Amino acid sequence: MVWRGIALAVMLALSLALIGCGGSADEETPAEVAETPAPAGEADSGGLVGLVEHLRDKSFQLWDVYNTHDPNALEAFYSDDYWEEEKESLRSNMQPFKDRGLIFTAEETAPPKEIAPGKWEIRHTARYPGGEVKMVFVYEEFVGEWLLTYLKPE
User: Fold this and answer.
1) pTM for this prediction
2) Angle 73-79-83 (CA atoms, 0-180°, nearest 5)?
3) Pick from 123, 128, 58, 77: which is nearest to 99 by CA?
């Protein structure tokens, strides 16, 4: 959660700078106008900051579920269409890890960023005994829930 503290410190510093330049912290800035709402069912803990944290958490939860070696448990992370397209591939790709009992340890290598309106990307590197994989996750919102519509190695 260090990133949350850094983000809040940056927001505070920008507010102070705005006030120092003769503006007001109460004035609406372009960043506030374009702010993305927090995911449904979640308290708005900073709008855009809350969304970024949600996508980070969700991506790490995906690795936790992947480490159970149960591909069906991953369905909750995917949009319906993308799940139908990828489920057989996930099963076959997961089998060698299941057979060897390998576990992934993931780290974020690029923070969540909006790559198109309503479409967010995050990158991770996941290490396992004997190797690593660099992944690109793309999330889109479906009825208030952020789901994967793309997940591929870099």
Assistant:
1) 0.69
2) 55
3) 128
